[in-house]
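User: Could you check the structure of this?
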Amino acid sequence: MAVNVGPSFGDLLQGFRDRAALTQEELAERAGLSADAIGLLERGERQRPRRHTVRQLAGALGLSDEECARFAAARQAQRAAPRPDAALRPALPLPATTFVGRAAEIADLTRLLAPPTVRLVTLTGPGGVGKTRLAVEVAARLADQFADGAVFVPLAPLREPALVLDGIARELGITDRGGRPRLERLTARLRARRLLLVLDNFEHLLPAAPLLADLLAACPRLVVLATSRAPLRLSGERQYPVPPLPPPDAGSASRPENLAHHPALALFAQRAGAVAPGFALTPETAEATAAICRRLDGLPLAIELAAAGVKVLPPRALLARLDRALPLLAGGPRDLPARQRTLRDTIAWSYDLLPPDEQGLLRRLAVFAGGWTLAAAEAVCGATSDQRPATSDTSPPTPSSSVQPSSVTGHSSLAVLRGLAALVDASLVQPPAAGDPATGAPRYTMLETVREYAAELLADPPASAAGEEEAVRRRHADYFLGLVEEAQQHLVGPEEGA
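Assistant: Sure, the predicted structure tokens are below.
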């Protein structure tokens, strides 16, 4: 006896759309999908849409409960026919924990990538800020809108830029046949594919970026979402800096019902509850927890590592020990890469990728608490450790002056500017924020945990930089002493406000 399996998901979708008098484009706009995705589903070329996609379509079509049930049953009943390119559809990593926050970032990225207005987006930011997790979440939400799905390629295990194309081919299931060049093999397989390629941890393989540009040029329907602590610097690249989670202001976390409005608090509570099942945000713990999140600059990895400490210390006692955070923020899960099990190792990964001149500049910048201007960095950090530090007889520039101290040559001043730009690119220095209140000069900062790491290195530098800390702290003191002496002359009179 023949079994009546009922209409396919694609047939149902087209029938409901016709009833609603919607074009594929109109339905796509209502459902937050692409018109391509609607067409593929109706033609049966995508036979197993995700549950999230089914819910979006049902809502956009205004289906009744009974129709929603038929819709879901049709999806469940379908079995995709084997396809020769099935290897192009490996699963994305399945996170072991719940995704927290980032609603604005997800909205931005889905708008950029589906339908793609750009074909290369690079998530940048410091180690531990959550770039990988955000990329996986975005890819999972967009996979149904790409005919060939989304593919995740972990690049961290690779040590040579020349291996990047091999890594991509391996994740796509493309084997070496006939000895053809790697780029030619990839291009032949991907030229006609509509695919979202997630390339994770590109920062140590940047010389391979031109190969990625060649691949994108040869495959017009390929879209790449990369994560990297530094931009790839390719034409057409859209850099998307991933910020830390905004920590709650002092006093705003006193009521636990505010938890949903503070992702940093929610992340701490979730991770703390995993190791100490009795943990909960209460009026007694919420303020200390919020202070921990502020001390850690809202950095997700740091928050997660700190939360693991509630098994031993309550939040208030934990906070008291965060005057030096790096020794405490260790012992991450064993299934994480080694560089992410302690915050010190995470920062060291970025530091070790820098050339020696930029490493030295990062160490010297640790003397600034609360940020610095370019003029201050040039005066304090512009000389290398073997140069004689400026004395207090050398007047530093006033906030409104562009004159450099006599001890800082034009060459070293330019080197500081270039070094700052490189450290911003490496996500070790934060992009300049609002200018100095008096002059409008941009101010630079470091995450406090990065500054702590740099200060440790300044206090115990390589042998080649012996004496560096004493020299740079003397220059720092001289610079600000001169600044105070200059300001003192203007404290009474028409310029006293500035």
